[in-house]
């Protein structure tokens, strides 16, 4: 069964892509129902759904604008994570996790690499859904910046876990054994924190911060 969905190079077959799209649609629809019920409504409000969809779209588009790429996957993009964090900042943790999950599914369809089910969960599902924890800081001063930093740290933790459990087995035998537990952490946080520093600097500019506050007021009004 696994061979029908995944190629020998770790990519997806046509059947694998089809299954991922179907599963992603089902998970997204269930998530919308869950988000609506958790807010005391039958479904997610249309305005909120539109803003979340735009956030995912902007994140997906900017993920293609890469400042530089790492040799074994990962890149510094044009603030792509910010748009997912913004949705969490607007609507809270549950909606933020849903938006991050949708974005993670798109990332998987865009650039899939499969070693195991748990590795896929770490690198695509859990890592991007973790961006939703930014919602915990939505009511605190400079909550967007604080939430963004916390979200990046959470995403990096799942990437590092996947790297330690699976990707390190692909390193050459000459790779120092003493660095195997440290390398996934250093590797993943090197590009994540670089993008985080760039994004935090941008959204801390007074004019940008004012514009983002206006967008938030529009989104939640």
- Shape, please? globular
Strand content: under 5%
Order of H and E elements: HHHEEHHHHHH
Count every beta strand, where a strand is a DSSP E run of 2 or more residues.
Answer: 2
Main sheet, how many strands, which sense, barrel? 2 strands, antiparallel
Instruction: Specify Rg, calculated over alpha carbons.
Output: 18 Å
Strand order of the largest sheet: 1-2
- Point out poorly predicted stretches: none
Mean pLDDT: 84
- The tally of helices reads 9
Structural account:
This protein has 221 residues and is mainly alpha-helical. It is 67% helix and 3% strand. The protein is built from 9 helices and 2 strands, in the order αααββαααααα. A two-stranded antiparallel ribbon has the order 1-2. A hairpin with a 5-residue loop joins strand 1 and strand 2. Helix 3 packs antiparallel against helix 4.
